[in-house]
Design goal:
With 369 residues, the protein is of the alpha/beta class. The chain folds into 2 domains: 6-126 and 310-330, 3-Layer(aba) Sandwich (Rossmann fold), CATH 3.40.50.720; 134-304 and 340-350, Dihydrodipicolinate Reductase, domain 2, CATH 3.30.360. Helices cover 35% and strands 26% of the residues. The protein has 13 helices and 15 strands. It has helices spanning 17-20, 22-25, 40-50, 59-63, 80-89, 104-117, 131-141, 168-174, 177-180, 184-199, 306-323, 331-350, 356-360, and strands at 6-11, 30-36, 54-56, 70-73, 93-97, 121-124, 148-157, 205-216, 222-233, 240-247, 260-268, 271-275, 288-292, 295-299, 354-355. The strands form 2 sheets. It has a 9-stranded mixed sheet with strand order 14-13-12-11-7-10-9-8-15. Strands 3-2-1-4-5-6 form a 6-stranded parallel sheet. Helix 3 (40-50) links the parallel strand 2 and strand 3 (54-56). Helix 10 packs across helix 12 (331-350). It starts with 5 loop residues before the first strand and ends in a 9-residue tail after the last helix. The relative contact order is 0.17. The structure holds nicotinamide-adenine-dinucleotide (NAD). Nicotinamide-adenine-dinucleotide binds at residues 11-17, 36-39, 42, 59, 74-77, 79, 97-98, 126, 169-170, 188.
Length: 369
């Protein structure tokens, strides 16, 4: 007997919906049956493009839709908690974009709703689904570089105006720390980079230090960059990581998406792994390179379009729901990454090193200035 498809409802038909839809549209066991956005015209456009049967402007109507099995939440961060809790209470599985919430207290309430409902709740952190990152992790776990000792992430933001169009409304909530939950760079984009910091070293992050400079963009608009974050992992051997973001506002960063690119270097006791791109295509190097014993191995055949990481995230949820297993990112994992981001924000604000445990013990810790 063929399995019934997983019926998705999309809440939020903004910028990233264009990529988040792909894994569901291309999966033989999934369909997008309903969409919802306050902007009815945007919702109608998406419904037509995706073959969705129903358009809602009120999220409650989407949550009450009996034909929807799971809701993909793609709204601004200050709405994530309310939308996730309401969808879970209505008996839907939930796929929630990163960062899941602005604070750990908000995350606690989402987690409690998920536990009460018995439904799946996963957080979409697409960098962990990007094939060069996945392959790097597979190689590292197989011992390709010995013991991983350090992770270095570098984000290169480029000239405004290149890349894809982002509406003023989207920019407005993202640059508003209250709605975003913190800085557009170090809290919003940072969530991915902190996840990368956690992914490649099998030890919890223990202490964090950050320098964050706030740069004026306009009358009332500020962006949190350049920034430099460093951290120490728990236990032995001594291991450290760092993330640096620099805006080279006169530099072209080739990208079909945001004008930004991310590189990761993982150093081990016996070798090095480099992932040379992610969101953009700054350098036309092999996406993944491994060095060991004087030999360099380059990977040229991985799926390197940033959109592929969203495809993989969509596929994973459908397969997990069909097989009745958890999907990544789990809430327990998301909690650690969120605490990491909040620790960096507190460190930058207070000019001191911050322990992750200090944040975990303070559910109301916030990165919003
Ligand atoms: N994984 C990534 O790399 C990545 C990239 C971009 C965005 N995101 C995440 O995706 C989410 C959405 O980001 P975006 O860039 O698409 O934002 P966006 O502003 O382009 O889209 C948000 C949409 O939500 C709609 N909306 C707002 N309030 C609503 C409400 N109460 N009810 C119904 N609709 C409502 C808006 O009208 C808008 O169309 C955020 O969580 C963001 O962090 C993730």
């Amino acid at each position: 007997m063929p399995k019934p498809p997983i019926r998705m409802g999309f809440l939020g038909c903004g910028r990233i919906a264009d990529l988040q839809c792909l894994g569901y549209l291309e999966h033989p066991d999934a369909e997008i049956v309903a969409v919802c956005d306050l902007d009815e015209a945007a919702a109608r456009r998406r419904a037509e493009a995706w073959g969705a049967r129903r358009v809602h402007v009120d999220p409650e109507k989407l949550f009450a839709d009996p034909e929807v099995d799971a809701v993909e939440i793609l709204t601004p961060h200050h709405l994530h908690e309310a939308h996730a809790v309401a969808a879970l209470q209505a008996g839907k599985h939930v796929s929630l974009q990163k960062p899941p919430t602005r604070t750990l207290a908000e995350l606690d309430r989402v987690e409690a709703a998920a536990a009460r409902s018995g439904r799946v709740l996963r957080v979409v952190e697409n960098f962990m689904h990007y094939e060069p990152h996945r392959k790097a992790l597979e190689l590292i776990e197989a011992g390709a570089i010995g013991t991983p000792l350090s992770v270095r992430v570098k984000t290169a933001a480029g000239r405004f105006g290149d890349g894809w169009e982002v509406t003023p409304e989207t920019q407005a909530w993202r640059l508003d720390p209250a709605r975003c939950g913190g800085g557009a760079t170090t809290f919003d984009h940072g969530y991915h980079c902190f996840q990368m910091g956690r992914l490649f070293v099998p030890a919890p992050v223990e202490r964090v230090h950050a320098f964050v400079h706030w740069t004026r963009l306009g009358d009332d608009a500020w962006i949190d960059g350049p920034a430099l974050v460093s951290w120490r992992y728990a236990g032995d051997p001594p291991r450290h990581g760092s993330w640096e973001v620099i805006a080279s506002t006169g530099m072209r960063v080739p990208s079909k998406y945001y004008v930004s690119d991310d590189r990761v270097e993982v150093r081990g006791s016996e070798g090095i792994v480099w992932v040379n791109r992610c969101t953009g295509r700054l350098l036309e190097e092999p996406s993944l390179v491994v060095y060991r014993e004087g030999e360099t191995r380059a990977f040229h055949d991985l799926a390197t379009d940033w959109a592929d990481s969203f495809r993989a995230a969509g596929r994973e949820l459908v397969d997990a729901l069909a097989e009745g297993r958890p999907a990544s990112q789990t809430l327990a994992d998301a909690r650690q990454t969120l605490a990491f981001a909040l620790a960096a924000a507190r460190s930058a604000a207070e000019g001191r090193e911050v322990a992750i445990d200090e944040i975990l013990a303070d559910p109301d810790a916030s990165a919003a200035r």
